[in-house]
């Protein structure tokens, strides 16, 4: 036996207890009653060090994440990293538009514009941190926000 099922990082990520409860605990397994509950953020200021593009992205998504009660104090760094990656991606794309995919090196030969590498790496970071924040459709399906619960559901009492 290799024991891969018990190694951290293997297999599916566990669902939060709140998500299991909303689904009616379909697996009927015992729920983790010791899951940490971190403080939800209702408003968060944009860090001063972020550039203009990153600050614009922050202004777009931070209020949404707070309104849906998706972001906790322990997630603030993910939001910062997402916005910083977005800023780098926009900057790299502007450079690519201005100078092209290839540039002339010191010897007069063509080489790949380093901005292309920055753009690709930034897109990977956007995907990673965006998924952690639920900013893509499949990740959003896995999130349980506190803002969309219907108080008038007649089946709640069952």
List keywords for this structure.
Phage terminase, small subunit, putative, P27 family; Phage_term_ssu_P27
- Over all CA atoms, what is the radius of gyration? 21 Å
Discrete helix count: 5
Output the strand order for the largest sheet: 1-2
Helix and strand pattern: HHHEEHH
Total count of domains: 1
List segments where confidence is low: pLDDT < 50 over at least 5 consecutive residues.
Answer: 145-151
What profile does the largest beta sheet have? 2 strands, antiparallel
**What general form does the structure show?**
elongated
Number of strands: 2
Strand content: under 5%
Give the proportion of residues in helices. 40-55%
What's the mean pLDDT score? 81
Protein structure class: mainly alpha
Pfam families: Terminase_4 (PF05119)
Protein name: Phage terminase, small subunit, putative, P27 family
Region (Disordered): 1-34
Q: How would you describe the overall organization of this protein?
A:
InterPro entries: Phage_term_ssu_P27. This is Phage terminase, small subunit, putative, P27 family. The chain has 158 residues and is mainly alpha-helical. The chain has one domain. Helices cover 46% and strands 4% of the residues. Strands 1-2 form a two-stranded antiparallel sheet. Helix 2 packs antiparallel against helix 3 and helix 3 packs antiparallel against helix 4. It is elongated.
Quick synopsis:
The protein is mostly helical.
Detail the topology: elements first, then pairings:
Blueprint: H1 17-22, H2 52-67, H3 76-99, E1 102-104, E2 110-112, H4 114-133, H5 137-142
Antiparallel strand pairs: 1-2
Helix pairs in contact: 2-3, 3-4
């Amino acid at each position: 036996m290799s024991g891969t099922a018990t190694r951290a990082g293997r297999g599916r990520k566990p669902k939060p207890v709140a998500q299991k409860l909303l689904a009616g605990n379909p697996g009927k397994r015992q729920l983790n009653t010791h899951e940490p509950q971190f403080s939800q953020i209702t408003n968060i200021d944009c860090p001063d060090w972020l550039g203009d593009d990153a600050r614009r992205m922050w202004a777009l998504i931070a209020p949404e994440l707070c309104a849906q009660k998706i972001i906790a104090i322990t997630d603030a760094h993910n939001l910062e990293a997402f916005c910083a990656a977005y800023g780098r991606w926009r900057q790299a794309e502007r450079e690519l538009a201005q100078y092209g995919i290839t540039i002339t090196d010191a010897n007069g030969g063509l080489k790949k514009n380093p901005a292309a590498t920055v753009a690709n790496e930034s897109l990977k970071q956007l995907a990673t941190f965006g998924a952690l924040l639920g900013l893509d459709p499949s990740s959003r399906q896995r999130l349980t926000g506190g803002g969309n619960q219907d108080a008038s559901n007649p089946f709640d009492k069952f």
